[in-house]
Amino acid sequence: MKRVFGVKKEKAPAPTVEEATERMNKRGDNVDEKIKKLDAELVRYREQIKRTRPGPAQEAVKARAMRILKQKKLFEGQRDQLYNQTFNLEQVSFATEGIKDAQQTMSAMRAATKELKGTMKTLKIDDIDKMQDEMMDLVDYSTEIQETLGRSYNVPDDIDEDDLMGELAALEDDMGSEEVSDGVPAYLQPDPEPEQELNLPTAPAGQPQAVNPQGVDEYGFPMAPRAQVRT
Description:
coiled coil, Charged multivesicular body protein 5, 0% strand, elongated
């Protein structure tokens, strides 16, 4: 049967956009290389035309240069077509990637919405309000416990404003009696120096002692010479 009807050939898979774009880029690179070679030949022919005198030889060089120029124009046209096709493929690739991103975004949003709905089912407004009321009751109860534990003992409650002002006035009088001339209380004054605590005798009054022959006074310091008065 296979010999009579033959075997059905399997179709090759269609090339992807990326494969087609890569193939176009390679063709464009090949065309660019050919154009560069033609440019080099045109430069060489231009130099020959400059060096050749007008005549049949120069015309022959111009003819070859004209043929190379036509080939260059042909390759440049092909390169422009390849660039346009490559641009179209890149646009299609960009659109395809955008669609894939949109599909992934939609899938992620569907999953997040499903998860959010499942979470919201476990939360009820009545339960949240009840929990808030219980929390407020616990906070009030804790505050009451702290106030009870911080209560003072044996503190008289019958003190009025007159008693307070009288107590402050008495403290002010006591502190005023302890102040010294510079306004600082005596208990805040620094300790006196050791020299101030010693009761040193006062210097004797009267004439100083006689100076000894060495010319020093009673304290051991040299005496200044007295000026002699002429008569």
